[in-house]
Amino acid sequence: SQQGEEDPQALSIQEGENATMNCSYKTSINNLQWYRQNSGRGLVHLILIRSNEREKHSGRLRVTLDTSKKSSSLLITASRAADTASYFCAGGSGAGSYQLTFGKGTKLSVIP
Amino acid sequence: EPEVTQTPSHQVTQMGQEVILRCVPISNHLYFYWYRQILGQKVEFLVSFYNNEISEKSEIFDDQFSVERPDGSNFTLKIRSTKLEDSAMYFCASSDAARASYEQYFGPGTRLTVT
Predict the structure, then answer these.
(1) pLDDT-based confidence at B72, cuts 50/70/90?
(2) Mind telling me how many Å the CA of A102 is from chain B's nearest CA?
(3) Would you call B43 and A88 a contact, using CB atoms and an 8 Å cutoff?
(4) Domain residue limits, chain B
(5) What CATH topology corresponds to B5-114?
(6) Do B104 and A103 touch (CB under 8 A)?
(7) Do the beta carbons of residue A62 and residue A77 sit within 8 Å?
(8) Nearest CA among A7, A33, A21 for reference residue A94
(9) How far apart are CA A39 and CA A43, in angstroms?
(10) Which domain holds residue A26?
(11) B37-53 tens-digit pLDDT
(12) I need a surface site. Which of A13, A105, A111, B40 has the fewest CB within 10 A?
């Protein structure tokens, strides 16, 4: 089964605008995490939301989780050129398993 | 801030050769992982390691792969006989899952090129 299918695949916005990325998953999760990857670099953990949470904030990031729709969204407010990166969601099933299943990611370009 | 480190950053090897990718996880973390990302594709889970043994592995992690924690700080991934399709970015990650903290912290990756 697949977890973490993001849309859109690519998003281009002007600096200062908000960016919203969506993620859908197919099997049950214990937690869902969002990561950022700058081109050719490692993955940076952004935020984790647990299955019993509906919304979480961290600085300019807002994550929502709708377990009934098996979907999550990541909102970056007041985007900056430095936010240009690929963003991935990754589902963790818990229940003694810690592996993450990643989606293909959304490539965000923030134009100065 | 503590971070996961990986060496080398880039490894070029010939098909059939053995390679060892090295990682130093965050010091107080107890769970360690390897993932790979073939160019343009998803990040894929390979293996997780806890208490000196493999706790989970994916279908990708076949007999050509092995992991080891040779000392108190290093965590290695060995590919015994590399194939062209092993060319990918390999990421090591660690987590403090013992505190039920599921966040995984990734290293910068090793780009493996098999020719």
Answers:
(1) confident
(2) 6
(3) yes
(4) 5-114
(5) Immunoglobulin-like (2.60.40)
(6) no
(7) yes
(8) A33
(9) 10
(10) 5-111
(11) 999 888 999 999 998 99
(12) B40
